[in-house]
Amino acid sequence: MDLLQAMRNRHSVRSYTNKPIEGEVKEKLSALIAQCNGESGLHIQLVLDEPNAFDSMMAHYGKFSGVRNYIVMAGKKTAELEETCGYYGEKIVLYAQTLGLNTCWVAMTYSKGKAVFQLDQDEKVCLVIAVGYGETEGTAHKVKSRERVMKVQGTPPEWFIRGIDAALLAPTAMNQQKFVFSLDGNTVSAKAGMGFYSRIDLGIAKYHFEIGAGTENFQWGKTSS
């Protein structure tokens, strides 16, 4: 399964079996997390066989069950932290899908006080990602039309359309999809709209756009909010 197929197949999953993440799957997932930390400067942590973070009223309200594994998205307190967590978190999420795992982005409906992680003094947790073997593969979400998330003059090139289609498959908070991609020559600019976790959502959408469009076809311009 390549990343484009993983993008199409991947849906949020909130209920998990008790099958552990181990062996080659664990090694490959851990290796990618280490790579992402090295590239980004984030402090992403994989927590396995730890049920307490999702044993709370908030988790039950969020309809989570059987969550024993999660990925902590954390890093230094900077203006770019949320977008960076979104970008690299989705890189991990899609790779996990290729390994046969299921995932769900979680911002509020877990117990931060019970979660296990380590932080330096200048770091904070943005959110976590539930990961494991789902009881189902989840269901697809509704998406906006291309026209609502892009600004172009004239007919856009095919690579840009492919990027937009990929971005529309990105998971976003409450499925709000509050982002816009603009094209000027071969320069693409991305803008986050107003809304909960929109900067994280923008990072996720930008990673999807890169996969769909192909990074050889464009360069990133200014990102704004």
From TrEMBL:
Thylakoid as UniProt keyword: no
Keywords: Oxidoreductase
MF annotations from Gene Ontology: oxidoreductase activity
Domain of life: Bacteria
Name the UniProt record assigns to this protein: Nitroreductase family protein
Organism: Candidatus Eisenbergiella intestinigallinarum
InterPro entries (UniProt xref): Nitroreductase-like, TM1586_NiRdase
Gene3D superfamilies tied to this protein: NADH Oxidase (3.40.109.10), putative nitroreductase (tm1586), domain 2 (3.40.109.30)
PANTHER family: NAD(P)H NITROREDUCTASE YDGI-RELATED, NADH DEHYDROGENASE_NAD(P)H NITROREDUCTASE XCC3605-RELATED
